[in-house]
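Exercise 7. Given the components listed, write out the predicted structure of the assembled complex. Treat all entries as one system.
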Amino acid sequence: MSELRLQDVRLAYAFPGGVVLDGVNFVLRSGESCVLKGRSGCGKTSFLHVLGGLLEPSGGQVLWDGRVIFAAKQNVLRGRTIGFIFQNHCLLPGLTALENVLLPWRIAGCGSFRSAKSRAQKLLADVWLSGKEHSVPNSLSGGELQRVALARALLLRPPFLLADEPTGSLDGAAEIRVRDLLFDLCRREGAGLLAVSHGEIFDDFVDRTATLEGGKICGEGGHGSGLSGQCLAKKY
Amino acid sequence: MKISWVIYYGWKQLFPSRGGRLFVLASSSGVAIGVAVLAVVLSIMDGFQGEVREQLLHFHGEVAVLSEGVPFSAVEEGRRLLLAVRGVAAARPFFEAPLLLEREGRYALPIAQGLAAEELDGLPAGSVLLGDCLVERLGAQPGDDISLLNPQTLLGADDGVVVLPLRATVAGTIPARRGGPDGHRVLMAIDELAGLFGSSDAAMGYELRLTPGTKAQELVRRLNGEVLLPPLRAESWMEMNRELLSVLALERAAMFFSMAFIVAVAAFAMGSFLAAHVSRRAREMGLLRALGARPSTIAFSFFLQSIFVGILGLLLGLALCALLLHWRDALLRILLAAFGRDGGVLSFYAFDRLPVAWSWWEFGKISAFALITVAVAGLLPAFRALRTDPSLSLRHE
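Answer.
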């Protein structure tokens, strides 16, 4: 089992000023899921970026199985260790859906193209987009775009998935579909999931809930009503 | 075969899977036009310079032995001495001096050049060849008689000696670039010209023809250091025409500088567009960082896009240059017609077509300049990409 750990992490911005994270300690283990909540502007995204090695903390350390993850040479390591999903899908507009999903493989440079393509096609099928491999982002709906982003995030079988408001731009059935796929695939892949969310859509699905306030994790609760272990893929 | 993601990403930016190729077309076209204009202008300038060089060489050969305007005798002995020098294939004595010409009250004071009979293609005794400017000035036609007089004799007439002018027949004209050196010249037999200046067996210098592979400057050094005594002195054609050659070189440099600006403008316009493109694509930069890409490789990808556009523009530009040079005469006629001019431009220069000269070396220099300019311009988007903060760019709006 792998773990991502924030150890006494501190983050302060020179402008507009203020401490965002004040001695935060947090652990995310592969296979478990957690939702991070807090009021708007409290630093949830910064927390996620620090945990994912995109933002260097002002103090403390970010560790993956004991190794510091932010070191400059660890860029590719981070790419293979952590999958990201953003509220805005962040797909490259000039690439097809399949090409977008394959992008992590191209950057990481591991394995053969054939095996990577096979996995990418399987993931697109898992998110119900097998007929849209060659579609460009302009021709996909919001829900479809986010599902492609989900497939991309899981291509290299990362032990951890960090999602920043993954359903924030969606509504109704699309939001629920993406949520269900997210949890179903994470459980199947054994990936640890940390999702940032304003709402309560993830509350009943995660193993625990953490609340960020005043730069600290001030509350961590156990998982909700729990649909852990249940496969939702067939529901729709 | 796996392609480096840097190349793949750059390629997909320029040629996305659907549409969006306008940037590549526009930017490479700009570079292509700049390269084509630069190459065409320099090729035509080099062609003109080549023609001028040929005329200068025709006039005095590659090396001339001069007596600083003082006639000397023992011409044949001197010629044999020069022929014995390594690198000299032929030595042609000549006499050169200002001559006063007169015909029916019209006067001209050109420089006359006297050559050996075998150099004058059978010019009859008592005949002269006139440059076309002199023909016009004197109103002379082939077959007309003109008077030739040494101007110095007018100053020396106080000893009571009257020097009669020499009567000569105009045998023909010297075809040359109008207004050029040959247009104001008189060619005649060396003994007849020397006779006007005191001795028919005199010369003022030798024109040397070199053996293949002999360098003019090296021969000049040897002649001046080991063979010739004052007032005789050897000069290469470049030394004799250094002012004209300097002006031509300056003109070429000025044209290169002017035309190069077009290439620079096109390159930096492309670089600026890419730099702005980077700003719009900040979120993509952040994504690539999130996927594990290093900032330097992302920046390098944008740099490669500039290089690719530059290479494409360069190849298109060279192809366009080749087409323009191939069809230059037809294009010149169109331009002249458009501006209401006749074809006298070419006849003015005594050319039958627009001269061009090109070499792989010159095209190589133009290509290197274009690529270096494009590469420097490509640093703009690369540096901007380096400075992109992934965390900031990935925050949802």
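Discussion: Residues 5-54+244-393 of chain B form one domain. Residues 22-60 of chain B form the longest helix (39 residues).
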